[in-house]
Amino acid sequence: MNKLLASTCLLLGTIAGSSFASAADCGNVTIASMNWQSAEVISNLDKIILNEGYGCNAEITIGDTVPTITSMAEKGEPDIAPEAWIDLLPDVVKKGTEEGRIITVGSPLPDGGVQGWWIPKYFADAHPDIKTIPDLLKHPDLFPAPEDPSKGAIYNGPQGWGGTVVTAQLYKAFEAEKAGWTLIDTGSAAGLDGSIAKAYERQQPWAGYYWAPTALLGKYEMVQLEAGVPYDAAEWKRCNTVADCPDPKPSAWPVDTIVTLVAKPFSEKAGPEVMDYLKKRSWSNATINKLMAWMTDNQASGEDGAKHFLEENPDIWKEWVSPEAAAKVEAAL
Protein backbone atom coordinates (compact mmCIF):
# COMPACT_ATOMS: atom_id res chain seq x y z
CA MET A 1 0.00 0.00 0.00
CA ASN A 2 2.80 2.41 0.94
CA LYS A 3 4.58 1.50 -2.30
CA LEU A 4 1.37 2.23 -4.28
CA LEU A 5 0.96 5.61 -2.58
CA ALA A 6 4.60 6.43 -3.20
CA SER A 7 4.28 5.50 -6.88
CA THR A 8 1.12 7.58 -7.27
CA CYS A 9 2.74 10.60 -5.62
CA LEU A 10 5.79 10.19 -7.83
CA LEU A 11 3.60 10.03 -10.96
CA LEU A 12 1.60 13.11 -9.95
CA GLY A 13 4.79 14.93 -9.08
CA THR A 14 6.26 14.06 -12.46
CA ILE A 15 3.16 15.31 -14.29
CA ALA A 16 3.01 18.53 -12.27
CA GLY A 17 6.73 19.04 -12.68
CA SER A 18 6.42 18.49 -16.42
CA SER A 19 3.64 21.11 -16.71
CA PHE A 20 5.60 23.59 -14.61
CA ALA A 21 8.73 22.99 -16.66
CA SER A 22 6.78 23.56 -19.88
CA ALA A 23 5.54 26.94 -18.63
CA ALA A 24 8.94 27.84 -17.26
CA ASP A 25 10.64 26.85 -20.51
CA CYS A 26 8.29 29.11 -22.49
CA GLY A 27 9.30 32.03 -20.28
CA ASN A 28 9.53 35.55 -21.71
CA VAL A 29 8.34 35.91 -25.29
CA THR A 30 8.46 38.91 -27.62
CA ILE A 31 5.81 38.99 -30.36
CA ALA A 32 6.10 41.42 -33.25
CA SER A 33 2.95 43.35 -34.12
CA MET A 34 3.15 44.93 -37.56
CA ASN A 35 1.37 48.19 -38.32
CA TRP A 36 -1.68 46.82 -40.10
CA GLN A 37 -4.95 45.45 -38.77
CA SER A 38 -4.65 41.71 -39.42
CA ALA A 39 -1.14 41.62 -37.96
CA GLU A 40 -2.24 43.60 -34.89
CA VAL A 41 -5.06 41.21 -34.10
CA ILE A 42 -3.07 38.01 -34.63
CA SER A 43 -0.19 39.23 -32.43
CA ASN A 44 -2.68 39.95 -29.65
CA LEU A 45 -4.30 36.57 -30.22
CA ASP A 46 -0.93 34.86 -29.80
CA LYS A 47 -0.24 36.88 -26.66
CA ILE A 48 -3.52 35.86 -25.03
CA ILE A 49 -3.25 32.18 -25.93
CA LEU A 50 0.44 31.84 -25.01
CA ASN A 51 -0.02 33.65 -21.70
CA GLU A 52 -3.34 32.20 -20.59
CA GLY A 53 -3.13 28.79 -22.23
CA TYR A 54 0.53 27.92 -21.91
CA GLY A 55 1.85 30.02 -19.04
CA CYS A 56 4.21 32.15 -21.11
CA ASN A 57 5.11 35.74 -20.29
CA ALA A 58 4.46 37.19 -23.74
CA GLU A 59 4.74 40.86 -24.61
CA ILE A 60 4.08 42.65 -27.88
CA THR A 61 6.74 44.75 -29.57
CA ILE A 62 5.79 47.13 -32.39
CA GLY A 63 7.50 46.38 -35.67
CA ASP A 64 7.19 46.46 -39.43
CA THR A 65 7.97 43.95 -42.15
CA VAL A 66 11.49 44.94 -43.17
CA PRO A 67 13.05 45.83 -39.78
CA THR A 68 11.37 42.92 -37.94
CA ILE A 69 12.30 40.19 -40.41
CA THR A 70 15.82 41.60 -40.79
CA SER A 71 16.31 41.69 -37.00
CA MET A 72 15.08 38.12 -36.62
CA ALA A 73 17.29 36.88 -39.44
CA GLU A 74 20.40 38.65 -38.09
CA LYS A 75 19.90 38.63 -34.30
CA GLY A 76 17.12 36.11 -33.56
CA GLU A 77 14.95 38.89 -32.09
CA PRO A 78 12.00 39.24 -31.56
CA ASP A 79 10.90 35.67 -30.84
CA ILE A 80 7.81 35.51 -33.06
CA ALA A 81 6.59 37.35 -36.15
CA PRO A 82 3.05 35.96 -36.46
CA GLU A 83 2.29 37.45 -39.89
CA ALA A 84 5.46 37.74 -41.96
CA TRP A 85 5.12 38.63 -45.65
CA ILE A 86 8.37 36.97 -46.65
CA ASP A 87 8.22 37.56 -50.42
CA LEU A 88 9.32 41.12 -49.69
CA LEU A 89 12.66 39.88 -48.28
CA PRO A 90 13.34 36.43 -49.77
CA ASP A 91 17.14 36.66 -49.54
CA VAL A 92 17.09 37.84 -45.91
CA VAL A 93 14.75 35.02 -44.90
CA LYS A 94 16.80 32.44 -46.80
CA LYS A 95 20.03 33.57 -45.15
CA GLY A 96 18.48 33.69 -41.66
CA THR A 97 17.10 30.18 -42.13
CA GLU A 98 20.35 28.76 -43.46
CA GLU A 99 22.33 30.33 -40.62
CA GLY A 100 19.97 28.81 -38.05
CA ARG A 101 18.49 32.01 -36.60
CA ILE A 102 14.88 31.62 -37.76
CA ILE A 103 12.47 28.88 -38.76
CA THR A 104 9.15 28.98 -40.61
CA VAL A 105 6.23 27.56 -38.64
CA GLY A 106 3.10 27.21 -40.73
CA SER A 107 1.04 30.05 -42.19
CA PRO A 108 -1.49 32.25 -40.38
CA LEU A 109 -3.09 33.03 -43.75
CA PRO A 110 -2.82 30.00 -46.03
CA ASP A 111 -4.92 31.78 -48.69
CA GLY A 112 -1.99 34.17 -49.01
CA GLY A 113 -1.95 37.88 -49.67
CA VAL A 114 -4.19 38.35 -52.71
CA GLN A 115 -4.26 41.30 -55.12
CA GLY A 116 -6.13 41.74 -58.37
CA TRP A 117 -9.25 43.04 -60.08
CA TRP A 118 -12.59 42.48 -58.36
CA ILE A 119 -16.32 42.89 -58.96
CA PRO A 120 -19.16 42.83 -56.37
CA LYS A 121 -20.55 39.38 -55.60
CA TYR A 122 -24.11 40.46 -56.42
CA PHE A 123 -22.91 41.46 -59.88
CA ALA A 124 -20.91 38.25 -60.34
CA ASP A 125 -24.00 36.25 -59.38
CA ALA A 126 -26.10 38.14 -61.92
CA HIS A 127 -23.46 37.72 -64.64
CA PRO A 128 -21.93 34.25 -64.25
CA ASP A 129 -20.23 34.58 -67.64
CA ILE A 130 -17.83 37.20 -66.21
CA LYS A 131 -15.12 35.17 -64.48
CA THR A 132 -11.89 36.54 -65.96
CA ILE A 133 -10.37 39.87 -66.95
CA PRO A 134 -10.90 39.10 -70.66
CA ASP A 135 -14.56 38.28 -69.87
CA LEU A 136 -14.91 41.63 -68.10
CA LEU A 137 -13.38 43.59 -70.96
CA LYS A 138 -16.04 42.29 -73.36
CA HIS A 139 -18.70 44.25 -71.43
CA PRO A 140 -17.76 47.93 -70.99
CA ASP A 141 -21.44 48.79 -71.34
CA LEU A 142 -22.20 47.04 -68.03
CA PHE A 143 -19.75 49.23 -66.08
CA PRO A 144 -20.41 52.80 -67.28
CA ALA A 145 -17.84 55.41 -66.22
CA PRO A 146 -19.40 58.25 -64.18
CA GLU A 147 -18.05 61.03 -66.43
CA ASP A 148 -18.36 59.18 -69.74
CA PRO A 149 -21.01 56.42 -69.67
CA SER A 150 -20.05 55.39 -73.21
CA LYS A 151 -16.94 53.79 -71.68
CA GLY A 152 -16.48 51.16 -69.03
CA ALA A 153 -14.75 52.16 -65.78
CA ILE A 154 -11.91 50.34 -64.05
CA TYR A 155 -11.12 51.91 -60.66
CA ASN A 156 -7.46 52.10 -59.65
CA GLY A 157 -5.70 52.86 -56.38
CA PRO A 158 -3.83 56.07 -55.53
CA GLN A 159 -0.44 57.02 -56.94
CA GLY A 160 2.45 55.51 -55.00
CA TRP A 161 0.97 52.06 -54.52
CA GLY A 162 2.60 49.09 -56.21
CA GLY A 163 -0.85 47.72 -57.02
CA THR A 164 -1.72 50.96 -58.80
CA VAL A 165 1.30 50.59 -61.08
CA VAL A 166 0.47 46.97 -61.86
CA THR A 167 -3.19 47.76 -62.58
CA ALA A 168 -2.16 50.49 -65.03
CA GLN A 169 0.27 48.09 -66.71
CA LEU A 170 -2.31 45.30 -66.94
CA TYR A 171 -4.78 47.83 -68.34
CA LYS A 172 -2.27 48.32 -71.17
CA ALA A 173 -1.38 44.65 -71.45
CA PHE A 174 -5.00 43.55 -71.88
CA GLU A 175 -5.65 46.48 -74.29
CA ALA A 176 -8.54 47.71 -72.17
CA GLU A 177 -8.63 51.18 -73.74
CA LYS A 178 -9.06 49.66 -77.20
CA ALA A 179 -11.93 47.57 -75.77
CA GLY A 180 -13.79 50.71 -74.67
CA TRP A 181 -12.64 51.25 -71.09
CA THR A 182 -11.16 54.09 -69.06
CA LEU A 183 -8.90 53.84 -65.99
CA ILE A 184 -10.08 55.96 -63.06
CA ASP A 185 -7.63 57.36 -60.52
CA THR A 186 -9.46 57.30 -57.18
CA GLY A 187 -6.84 59.60 -55.65
CA SER A 188 -6.51 57.96 -52.23
CA ALA A 189 -7.18 54.82 -50.24
CA ALA A 190 -10.34 56.48 -48.93
CA GLY A 191 -11.38 57.33 -52.49
CA LEU A 192 -10.95 53.72 -53.61
CA ASP A 193 -12.84 52.38 -50.58
CA GLY A 194 -15.55 54.98 -51.08
CA SER A 195 -16.09 53.99 -54.69
CA ILE A 196 -16.72 50.37 -53.64
CA ALA A 197 -18.96 51.35 -50.72
CA LYS A 198 -21.04 53.67 -52.91
CA ALA A 199 -21.51 51.03 -55.60
CA TYR A 200 -22.32 48.31 -53.08
CA GLU A 201 -24.87 50.34 -51.17
CA ARG A 202 -26.62 51.23 -54.43
CA GLN A 203 -26.17 47.72 -55.86
CA GLN A 204 -24.42 49.19 -58.89
CA PRO A 205 -21.66 47.64 -61.02
CA TRP A 206 -18.02 48.21 -60.06
CA ALA A 207 -14.72 46.82 -61.34
CA GLY A 208 -11.21 47.60 -60.20
CA TYR A 209 -8.17 46.96 -58.05
CA TYR A 210 -8.28 45.70 -54.48
CA TRP A 211 -6.61 43.18 -52.22
CA ALA A 212 -7.19 40.75 -49.35
CA PRO A 213 -7.23 40.30 -46.45
CA THR A 214 -8.92 43.62 -45.70
CA ALA A 215 -11.73 44.95 -43.53
CA LEU A 216 -13.56 46.33 -46.57
CA LEU A 217 -13.94 42.89 -48.13
CA GLY A 218 -15.31 41.67 -44.80
CA LYS A 219 -18.08 44.25 -45.10
CA TYR A 220 -18.64 44.17 -48.86
CA GLU A 221 -18.39 40.73 -50.44
CA MET A 222 -16.37 40.87 -53.66
CA VAL A 223 -15.25 38.29 -56.22
CA GLN A 224 -11.77 38.33 -57.66
CA LEU A 225 -11.52 37.93 -61.42
CA GLU A 226 -9.06 35.38 -62.73
CA ALA A 227 -6.51 36.73 -65.17
CA GLY A 228 -7.27 34.11 -67.78
CA VAL A 229 -3.52 33.57 -68.20
CA PRO A 230 -0.87 32.13 -65.86
CA TYR A 231 1.51 34.14 -63.71
CA ASP A 232 4.63 35.08 -65.68
CA ALA A 233 7.37 35.82 -63.14
CA ALA A 234 9.86 37.08 -65.72
CA GLU A 235 7.43 39.53 -67.33
CA TRP A 236 6.12 40.60 -63.94
CA LYS A 237 9.60 41.64 -62.89
CA ARG A 238 10.67 43.02 -66.28
CA CYS A 239 7.67 45.19 -67.07
CA ASN A 240 4.40 44.69 -65.21
CA THR A 241 5.72 46.29 -62.01
CA VAL A 242 7.63 49.07 -63.82
CA ALA A 243 5.53 52.19 -64.38
CA ASP A 244 7.20 53.44 -67.55
CA CYS A 245 7.70 50.07 -69.25
CA PRO A 246 6.00 50.39 -72.65
CA ASP A 247 5.10 46.76 -73.42
CA PRO A 248 3.63 44.86 -70.45
CA LYS A 249 2.21 41.39 -71.05
CA PRO A 250 -0.96 39.82 -69.62
CA SER A 251 -0.25 37.90 -66.43
CA ALA A 252 -1.97 36.63 -63.32
CA TRP A 253 -1.09 38.33 -60.04
CA PRO A 254 1.28 36.37 -57.81
CA VAL A 255 -0.06 35.33 -54.40
CA ASP A 256 2.07 36.67 -51.54
CA THR A 257 3.41 34.04 -49.15
CA ILE A 258 2.58 34.75 -45.49
CA VAL A 259 4.17 32.67 -42.73
CA THR A 260 4.85 32.70 -39.02
CA LEU A 261 8.55 33.19 -38.35
CA VAL A 262 10.03 31.99 -35.06
CA ALA A 263 13.51 32.69 -33.71
CA LYS A 264 15.42 29.39 -33.51
CA PRO A 265 16.46 29.83 -29.83
CA PHE A 266 12.84 30.33 -28.79
CA SER A 267 11.68 27.34 -30.84
CA GLU A 268 14.14 25.15 -28.94
CA LYS A 269 12.99 26.24 -25.47
CA ALA A 270 9.26 26.83 -26.02
CA GLY A 271 8.19 23.22 -25.85
CA PRO A 272 6.25 21.08 -28.37
CA GLU A 273 2.77 22.29 -27.31
CA VAL A 274 3.58 25.94 -27.96
CA MET A 275 5.22 25.16 -31.29
CA ASP A 276 2.26 22.94 -32.26
CA TYR A 277 -0.10 25.85 -31.55
CA LEU A 278 1.94 28.23 -33.73
CA LYS A 279 1.97 25.65 -36.50
CA LYS A 280 -1.80 25.04 -36.42
CA ARG A 281 -2.94 28.64 -35.82
CA SER A 282 -4.36 29.85 -39.14
CA TRP A 283 -7.52 31.37 -40.54
CA SER A 284 -8.99 32.03 -43.97
CA ASN A 285 -8.99 35.43 -45.61
CA ALA A 286 -12.80 35.40 -45.31
CA THR A 287 -12.57 34.91 -41.53
CA ILE A 288 -10.05 37.69 -40.95
CA ASN A 289 -11.87 40.00 -43.40
CA LYS A 290 -15.04 39.73 -41.28
CA LEU A 291 -13.11 40.19 -38.04
CA MET A 292 -11.40 43.31 -39.36
CA ALA A 293 -14.74 44.67 -40.56
CA TRP A 294 -16.07 44.26 -37.00
CA MET A 295 -12.96 45.98 -35.63
CA THR A 296 -13.36 48.90 -38.03
CA ASP A 297 -17.07 49.33 -37.31
CA ASN A 298 -16.41 49.23 -33.55
CA GLN A 299 -13.12 51.18 -33.57
CA ALA A 300 -11.62 48.17 -31.84
CA SER A 301 -7.96 47.62 -31.01
CA GLY A 302 -5.98 44.51 -31.86
CA GLU A 303 -6.58 43.23 -28.33
CA ASP A 304 -10.33 43.90 -28.61
CA GLY A 305 -10.40 42.05 -31.92
CA ALA A 306 -8.53 39.06 -30.51
CA LYS A 307 -10.91 38.75 -27.56
CA HIS A 308 -13.94 39.12 -29.85
CA PHE A 309 -12.60 36.35 -32.08
CA LEU A 310 -11.97 34.03 -29.13
CA GLU A 311 -15.46 34.64 -27.75
CA GLU A 312 -17.25 34.21 -31.07
CA ASN A 313 -15.23 31.43 -32.75
CA PRO A 314 -14.36 28.66 -30.28
CA ASP A 315 -14.97 26.10 -33.03
CA ILE A 316 -11.99 27.52 -34.93
CA TRP A 317 -9.40 28.27 -32.27
CA LYS A 318 -9.95 25.19 -30.10
CA GLU A 319 -8.60 23.14 -33.01
CA TRP A 320 -5.27 24.91 -32.55
CA VAL A 321 -4.67 24.22 -28.87
CA SER A 322 -4.68 21.37 -26.35
CA PRO A 323 -7.90 20.79 -24.35
CA GLU A 324 -6.12 21.97 -21.21
CA ALA A 325 -5.00 25.20 -22.85
CA ALA A 326 -8.48 25.75 -24.31
CA ALA A 327 -10.04 25.51 -20.85
CA LYS A 328 -7.56 28.01 -19.41
CA VAL A 329 -8.11 30.49 -22.26
CA GLU A 330 -11.90 30.24 -21.93
CA ALA A 331 -11.69 30.81 -18.18
CA ALA A 332 -9.66 33.98 -18.77
CA LEU A 333 -12.09 35.56 -21.22
From TrEMBL:
Recorded superkingdom: Bacteria
Record's protein name: Glycine betaine/proline transport system substrate-binding protein
CDD domains on file: PBP2_HisX_like
Species annotation: Shinella fusca
Recorded coiled-coil stretches: none
GO cellular component, one term: ATP-binding cassette (ABC) transporter complex
Any Pfam family hit: OpuAC
UniProt signal peptide: 1-23
Transport is among the record's keywords: no
SUPFAM superfamilies recorded: Periplasmic binding protein-like II
Keywords assigned by UniProt, alphabetized: Signal
Lineage, opening ranks: Bacteria, Pseudomonadati, Pseudomonadota, Alphaproteobacteria, Hyphomicrobiales
Every ABC-type glycine betaine transport system substrate-binding domain range: 28-312
GO MF annotations in UniProt: transmembrane transporter activity
